[in-house]
Amino acid sequence: MAKCEICGKSVTFGLKVSHSNRKTNRTWKPNVRKVKAVMNGKTARVYVCSHCLRSGKVQRAV
């Protein structure tokens, strides 16, 4: 299951509601990328959501 290793964002569940008000299950998946990042002074491949990448919470490895 997709999960950000920095903020813990993961799949959320809810209902899809049609025009006639019929309800079916659906999921919202986070935008998670597998990137090389510096974690505790070492380079590691981690799953990080795009919000954490844009906000600078993760330092990408070169």
Description of the molecule:
It is a single chain. This protein has 62 residues and is mostly beta strands. It is built from one helix and four strands. The two termini are 27 Å apart. The model has no long low-confidence stretch (mean pLDDT 95).
- What structural class is derived from the secondary structure elements? mainly beta
Distance between the termini: 27 Å
Q: Tell me the overall shape.
A: elongated
Helix content: under 10%
Strand coverage percent? over 45%
Number of helices: 1
Overall mean pLDDT: 95
Strand order in the largest sheet: 1-2
Order of helices and strands: EEEEH
Quantity of strands, as a count: 4
Largest pleated sheet:
2 strands, antiparallel
Low-confidence stretches: none
How large is the radius of gyration? 16 Å
Question: What key phrases describe this protein's structure?
Answer:
two-stranded antiparallel ribbon, mainly beta, 62 residues
Write the layout of secondary structure elements.
Blueprint (H helix, E strand, L loop, with lengths): L11 E6 L5 E6 L3 E8 L2 E8 H6 L7
